[in-house]
Amino acid sequence: MKQTDCYWYLSESLRPWEAAVAGAVARAAIRDGAVIRSYSGGGTESLGIPGLLSWRSLNAMERLFIVAARGKLWHLWGQPPSWWMFVRARSRTVHTRFDEGSKWEGHPTTLSSAAPRGYTYIPPAFEMKMSWGTEEGKDIFDESRPALFLLTGSADDGRLYAQAAASLSSMLIDFDREEEEMKLFASGNCVLLLPRPTDSLALLAAFASLRGIPTVAARTAALDELIGKDGYVPLLSESAEDVKKAFTTVLGEGGRGASAFARRNVTEAYPPDRSARKLRELYRAVSEDDS
Known about the structure:
Layout: E1 5-10, H1 16-31, E2 35-40, E3 53-54, H2 60-69, E4 73-77, H3 84-90, E5 92-96, E6 107-110, E7 120-121, E8 148-151, H4 159-167, E9 171-174, E10 190-194, H5 199-210, E11 215-217, H6 221-226, E12 233-234, H7 240-250, H8 253-269, H9 272-287
Parallel strand pairs: 1-2, 1-4, 2-3, 4-5, 5-6, 6-7, 8-9, 8-10, 10-11, 11-12
Helix pairs in contact: 1-9, 4-7
């Protein structure tokens, strides 16, 4: 059966791990025979999509022609650009968003299977080569060296977590404030800390597991699905006692076991071809009555 051509726009709002998932899904779909013509509103390094063009590199006439005339089917990843309304006026559109508070700008798709009725679930894709500087397959956690707790998604300044880390001869780093945050994964002895994990941060935890980086996080359905209930050390509460207990566990055998479990879960449950098959079905469904 003939594949449906699709134009992709990948927003500059995508964080590195979100872009990496989108890129892995695109590569899998292209290997499956899909024709994807893609444009990035931000950088292109994390995406790795064959034929990807930077939207900013195009001149005004090229952009105008693309928006006005190109593509019967478009897939938006992330937040929409200012001109998206013109594409929606003439084309079928699919939207995968990562900001849960933003408005849907096309057929809603989600990377979590706990999707509300009417949404389409696209299984995320992960590839080991998205290393951000670490060596593939290398265990980068060494108990003899101080650990770096990478805090993201916290509602406060993290003082409680910093105190707990210091009491264990470790250090807390505000992951959200780092300009090249993903390169911290290559620094060794990292622990990902997610006091308030979102669906997007669950994707980050999945990537961390592929690099041998354990996660401490509050329980969520998204994390349980992606890396497994045994794939991270649970943060039972934000009390000083529970925080120190979770930190102590993750720095020992509990952290290594959780990381290994998560890695197996991600590699076995989310092969890229699974994403490709779902994307093929979705594109056919949204364009099936288009002549």
